[in-house]
Design a protein that fits this description.
This protein is mostly helical. Helices cover 64% and strands 0% of the residues. The protein contains four helices and no strands. Helix 2 packs antiparallel against helix 3.
Length: 72
């Protein structure tokens, strides 16, 4: 059984970490504050495009292949 104090600490940290915005959200908010709300969709689309699949012909890198090749 998990100690209630540890469970409370885990739950508290889980809520806090999920409530903190990441770097992409901070970038979009910063752009919107600096340049107005009309410019905010541009970085959102750029972030969404960067998260897409790799271009055709590019080597597929996985954590296991990086560990085997010695590059980090």
């Amino acid at each position: 059984m998990i100690d209630p104090h540890r469970l409370l600490a885990f739950g508290t940290m889980s809520v806090l970490l999920s409530a903190v915005p990441g770097p992409n959200a901070l970038f979009v908010i910063g752009r919107a504050l600096a340049h107005g709300r009309r410019t905010a969709p541009a970085p959102v689309l750029g972030n969404a495009g960067a998260a897409g699949p790799p271009p055709p012909g590019s080597p597929r890198r996985t954590p296991t292949s990086e560990a085997r090749s010695g590059s980090a």
